[in-house]
Amino acid sequence: MNLEHYLTTHHQGTPRQIFRLLRQGRVTVNDTVADSGRQSVTADDEVAVDGLAVTGRQPQYLMLNKPVGVVNDLRATVAHSVGSLLNVLDQERSLQVLADLPKEVAGLVLLSDDAHFLADVQAAHWPSTLEVRVTGTALQDTDLKTLAACQQAQLVTHDLQRYQVVTVQTHQVAVAATALLGLANVSGAVVRTAIGPLQLPVDLSTGTYRGLFEPEIDAVMVPTGDTVL
Fold first, then answer.
1. 165 vs 217: CA distance, rounded Å
2. How much is the pTM?
3. CA-based angle 31:17:120, to the nearest 5?
4. In sequence order, which residues have a C-beta less than 8 Å from that of residue 204 and are 6 or more positions away?
5. pLDDT tens per residue across span 158-198
6. In this structure, are strands 128-135 and 61-66 parallel, antiparallel, or unpaired?
7. Residue 151's beta-bridge partner residues?
8. 61, 81, 152, 225: which one has the fewest Cβ atoms less than 10 Å from its Cβ?
9. Distance CA 53, CA 38 (A)
């Protein structure tokens, strides 16, 4: 079979990820960097990604709904850490965390044992979507224009429940979160609900996590050499 099909059947990523692996020179066949996904491979060939045999490499891509107050530490022994929220199996994996979410902010966090994937997501410079609830006040759209590091601010008023939801996009999560928490009558935590096109599922409870689906992985993968403006 050809190399691209071989990598797909051995669960090395989505077709888009495999194309990226090959473009980045991270795939070798018999210790030689593969230059095409069309080259033929057999069961006798030694195929590796990032120096690890394909048969022993099963990359993990996870999303976590981080509670407020939890730090981006993957050691299970550290209280109130991301590591303490993982199950025993995942605690044993060589996971890394996209450590861009302060402990004061809840919501979407990405984890993976594929460091290149996390680096690619970070290099894409996706904006984060943050939201916070405000009660007992009557904010106007003009009140949001002065929020530091916030773009595309939106205000939704729920008259019946008597609260408002402020949603912003930002490339500076910590600065924007501080600005949002400075609003009068904030109720609850600032929550990151999205990283670029990747949305925090409404059914993913706080403190829990799941694997990313293939379309979700592809959504945050920018073509090699491109960045998000």
1. 28
2. 0.85
3. 95
4. 63, 65, 210
5. 877 689 999 999 999 999 999 999 998 999 999 999 999 99
6. unpaired
7. 169
8. 225
9. 19
